[in-house]
Amino acid sequence: MKKEMSFSSNVKEELSRVPCRRTHCQIAEFAALFAFCGQLRVTSSNGMHMAIQSENLPVIRKCFTLLRKSFNISGGVAIRTIGARTKLYTVCVLNTDDVLRIVQALKILGPDRRISVHGELVNPLIIQSDCCKRAFIRGAFLSAGSMSDPHKSYHLEIVCPSLLKAAQLQSIMKNFALSAKTVQRKNNYVVYLKDGDQIVDILNIMEAHKALLELENIRILHDIANQVNRQTNCEVANSQKTITASARQQEDILLIKRTIGFSQLSDGLAQLASLRLEYPDLPLKELGERLSPPIGKSGVNHRLRKLNQIANKIRETKQGELL
């Protein structure tokens, strides 16, 4: 049976197929893949090997695409099984000249043939334009990001190996008015978004348009459900309020009837008192329409307050007699 993919997996699958036509954007996206999944090794003969490792097949697919388009390089791939079901994929570039071309394009190689970007994810020269920043964010999410099921909650995150790298990613996202926050989780630092609008924005920035539309549909359904719940709760509350008020009115009217009788009331009050006992659940507007002559809801309210005042005076008198 084919395993159903999560929303996060679907986003990554879509991102792995987003075309990146400009060479400088391709380099920016590859820089993100290398920053989160890459390794550079100097051999004993002073040669250089590069490897991109991931359990995520879309990362490997994108890596192959960018190597071919940006550098005309075809890397090899190794697959290793970890545990019962997890596979670790590794894209290898073993030719030193090819590796040198890549790291020179990424602007990360120091004079001692070691990575030198001052602890950052990427050399700022690689992501000067907005289109390159978009490509880098796309590569970062593809490599180290995840997203919760939007049916349950709104949460998108990218895990960084250090605070300095998280700060740089946060700064890149800020260029697009994304108010990402950072939290430490064990030895890593997580850059995350929890606002639904901002998650829609970052999906648009990364060009995950299919996922964006799906998320928007889910949000619309959530909004409708919330609106229906609010309306239902309001109707229930109003109904309960009406029932409570009606019961209190009947209590007042029955007290008046038992003690002084309706004959002591004005015609308008006596007529309303009788109607309320006859129609205990009738809304005030409809109650007023049954009076002769009919009156509005505010008029009915006014008469009911008068009946309440009379009933309270009767209660006070009874209490005084007991004392």
Strand content: 5-15%
What order do the helices and strands follow? HHEEHEEHHEEHEEHHHHH
How many domains would you count in the coordinates? 2
The total beta strand count reads: 8
CATH architecture of the largest domain: Roll
Low-confidence stretches: none
Widest beta sheet: strand line-up: 1-2-4-3
Tally of helical runs? 11
Tell me the name of the CATH class of the largest domain: Alpha Beta
Specify the structural class: alpha+beta
Largest sheet data: 4 strands, antiparallel
CATH topology category name of the largest domain: Endonuclease I-creI
CATH homologous group name of the largest domain: Homing endonucleases
Distance between the termini: 83 Å
Q: Kindly report the average pLDDT value.
A: 87
Shape, please?
A: rod-shaped
Name the helicity range: 55-70%
What radius of gyration results from the CA coordinates? 36 Å
Write a brief caption for the model:
The chain has 323 residues and is an alpha+beta fold.
Could you characterize what this model shows?
This protein has 323 residues and is α+β, with helices and mostly antiparallel strands. The chain has two domains: 7-207, Homing endonucleases (Endonuclease I-creI, Roll); 241-322, no CATH class. Helices cover 56% and strands 14% of the residues. It has eleven helices and eight strands. It has helices at 7-15, 23-37, 57-71, 96-106, 130-144, 163-174, 196-205, 209-259, 267-278, 284-289, 297-322; strands at 38-42, 48-54, 76-82, 86-93, 145-147, 156-160, 181-185, 188-193. A four-stranded antiparallel beta sheet has the order 1-2-4-3. Strand 5 (145-147) and strand 6 form a beta hairpin. Helix 2 crosses helix 3 (57-71) and helix 8 crosses helix 9 (267-278). The radius of gyration is 36 Å and the shape is rod-shaped. It starts with 6 loop residues before the first helix and ends with a helix.
